[in-house]
What we know:
With 203 residues, the protein is an alpha+beta fold. Helix content is 54%, strand content 18%. The protein has two domains: 5-113 and 173-199; 116-170, no CATH class.
Amino acid sequence: MPEMVSKRKLAEARYFFGGLKGEQDPETFYYKLSAFLNACHSVMDIMIYDFVERQGLGITRDDYLDRASFELVAKSHKVEQEVMFSKWLKEKLDELSRYPIWNMRKVVTHRGYPNVTQETIYLSVSVYGSMGIGFSATPSSTSGTITAFGPPPSGSNVSENKTRTVFKLEEAGSREVGEVCGELYELLAGIVSEAEKRFWGES
């Protein structure tokens, strides 16, 4: 049975997502975001070639084939499995297109970079005030959400200050980019799993 190459591309997307989550350098963050988004889109592009190769349609990976041209091939052949896959693929691409981070790929590939803001989160601060009284502020964890503290008061003597840089996507309601990328990856992984079960006959 021909290899489902789109699964390897999914693993590539996961690799770049792993590097993206903890990245603190803005320039490197953009590089990893671009690589992640391109790998995600490649999953769906390559899945079409995986399908035609499995079905033995006489189309090779050297031929140009996108969703629109595959739809024409499926309609002309009138083979039930091809038509089903074409409709399913359209539904899944429509579902992906509702995610702002999915649509960012066109921006990073052809226009530059998306509107991402950078924010510093203060994780742990040890402060000594003007009277020499010290206290330590450490964020609490509630339902996996870190409570962030702002910068210490002016005039304070900061002995320890641990921070983390987060990047937020304006097009996604200023949510953290790592969070929306994680949601996109999980959706894409589910799509690949569904395709394998429905059209490749594997569990």
